[in-house]
Specification:
Strand 1 and strand 2 form a beta hairpin. This protein is 31% helix and 25% strand. It starts with a strand and ends with a strand. The protein is of the alpha/beta class.
Length: 99
């Protein structure tokens, strides 16, 4: 299943596919590029079973674009143990809210 988005009241929920990898770069970027700077993002990792290092880079690019306004926030939700461990090793808990 591809990356999907749902937007409601300035909150964009991005549901990721089972493998979050470099080939998702364009589709992922299209979910956030050009949105208002005060947009709040929720990334749903419910289906993600694998992510590579380029996925970490893509998350940083989203954060960089969202950081245009102090009100912009990015939450990572429904991370399984494997994904959570990858995020923790990369110290992403200091950059993102991981729920």
């Amino acid at each position: 299943m591809p990356i999907t988005t749902h937007e409601e009241s300035g909150v964009v929920t991005i549901s990721l596919d089972d493998k979050f990898v470099f080939s998702d770069h364009r589709a992922f970027r299209n979910t956030y590029h050009g949105r208002p700077p005060d947009t709040r993002y929720i990334l749903d990792f419910r289906r993600v079973t694998y992510m590579d290092s380029s996925a970490l880079g893509m998350l940083l690019l989203l954060k960089e674009e969202a950081a245009g306004a102090d009100r912009a926030r990015v939450q990572l939700i429904h991370c399984n143990d494997q994904v959570r461990k990858i995020l923790e090793v990369a110290n992403f808990g200091q950059i993102f809210t991981i729920v």
